[in-house]
């Protein structure tokens, strides 16, 4: 209907449908991100299975490494300075 409407300019038509276009593009990006994340997880599982077959340690995630670094005990002692 809008294509045949003579009183509406091309710019006005674009403005009417811009939200729909943005929503479609955002959904595409989210779907691509989900697919990418799924492939990464599958690859990690495959690599971890191969590593366990070779008796190698499993790969830690960045988050796990950060937690381990945070929980790492202090290497220097402050007790000798408290006299």
Any descriptors?
65% helix, 2 helices, mainly alpha, 0% strand, 83 residues, elongated
In short:
With 83 residues, this protein is mostly helical. The chain is 65% helix and 0% strand.
Reconstruct the topology from this structure.
Layout: H1 10-53, H2 62-71
Count of β-strands: 0
Largest sheet: none
Instruction: Give the overall shape.
Output: elongated
Determine the mean pLDDT: 80
Distance between the termini: 87 Å
How would you characterize this protein structure?
- This protein is an all-alpha fold and 83 residues long.
- The chain is 65% helix and 0% strand.
- The protein contains two helices and no strands.
- The radius of gyration is 28 Å and the shape is elongated.
- The longest helix has 44 residues, at 10-53.
């Amino acid at each position: 209907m809008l294509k045949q409407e003579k009183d509406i300019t091309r710019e006005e038509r674009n403005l009417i449908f811009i939200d729909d276009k943005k929503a479609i593009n955002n959904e595409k990006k989210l779907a691509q991100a989900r697919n990418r994340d799924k492939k990464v997880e599958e690859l990690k599982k495959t690599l971890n299975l191969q590593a366990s077959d070779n008796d190698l340690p499993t790969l830690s995630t960045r988050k796990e490494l950060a937690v381990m670094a945070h929980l790492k005990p202090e290497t220097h002692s402050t007790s000798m300075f408290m006299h």
